[in-house]
Design a protein that fits this description.
Elements: E1 12-15, H1 23-32, E2 37-41, E3 47-48, E4 51-52, H2 54-61, E5 65-67, E6 73-78, H3 80-84, E7 91-96, E8 101-103, E9 111-114, E10 120-127, E11 130-135, H4 142-152, E12 162-167, E13 170-175, E14 181-184, E15 190-193, E16 199-202, E17 205-208, E18 215-219
Parallel strand pairs: 1-2, 2-11
Antiparallel strand pairs: 3-4, 5-8, 6-7, 6-9, 9-10, 10-11, 12-13, 13-18, 14-17, 15-16, 15-18
Length: 223
């Protein structure tokens, strides 16, 4: 609703539960996100006017969608094409889900992950209206989100699994694991620990020691 109302403008949109949409809403949503990367999760547009529609899913995702057998495990394995783009982890659940879908017309180059039957579980393509990433298995992973960000030309502050918050000159890191984190501020200005005032180095790149659960608040200056 926020996107349709023009309150959100981004390089990447992740639609987690756009499962029921009317035709006008679908068209308006595609227009509102024109030129961006759109992540379509699980069953976008599947429900419409008390019925189900694979054609509505195709309109949103840009792929011809097929329904898979109800006993298929909803776990996707990255393909060589997916690994080349940085997708390295399994995505989904180790149990059957019904309904479960796949991109029927995705090419090998567009197929980033497959289900056990070889069908395209995660597929990416770029057209005149933008870039669409169809993610059939439930869930998203950090490397999949980084892949989408790169495709959109969005700045990545780190390639590590670290929680990041950014607003103006402030960059906040929260460690999800032990180990150093290399950050890229995108700026050549000094990097200051906002809590201690200590100068940690100069941007754009710096490696910081981090522990799981640790939070660091940095002042990285302005562009």
């Amino acid at each position: 609703d926020d996107v349709l109302a023009g309150r959100v403008h981004a390089k990447v949109y992740a639609f987690l539960s756009a499962w029921r949409m009317e035709p006008k809403e679908r068209r308006n949503l595609l227009e509102a996100t024109r030129g961006a990367v759109r992540i379509w999760c699980y069953a976008p547009g599947f429900h419409e006017d008390g019925a189900t529609s694979l054609d509505a899913m195709r309109e949103l995702t840009g792929f011809q969608i097929k329904k898979l057998p109800g006993n298929l495990i909803a776990l996707a394995t990255p393909t060589a094409a997916g690994q080349k783009m940085g997708l390295n982890t399994l995505i989904g659940l180790k149990r059957p889900i019904d309904p479960l879908f796949a991109a029927a017309d995705a090419t090998p180059e567009q197929t980033l992950a497959t289900f056990s039957d070889g069908s395209a579980a995660i597929a990416l393509h770029t057209g005149a209206g933008g870039t669409d990433l169809f993610v059939a298995p439930p869930g998203l992973s950090p490397d999949l989100l980084r892949l989408a960000a790169r495709a959109a030309g969005a700045h990545l502050f780190t390639a590590a699994d670290c929680n990041i918050y950014s607003n103006g000159p402030w960059l906040i890191l929260h460690g999800s694991q032990d180990g150093p984190v290399e950050i890229d501020t995108g700026r050549k200005s000094p990097i200051i620990d906002a809590l201690t005032g200590q100068a940690l180095g100069a941007g754009p790149k710096l490696t910081l020691p981090m522990t799981k659960g640790q939070t660091r608040i940095l002042n990285v200056g302005s562009n």
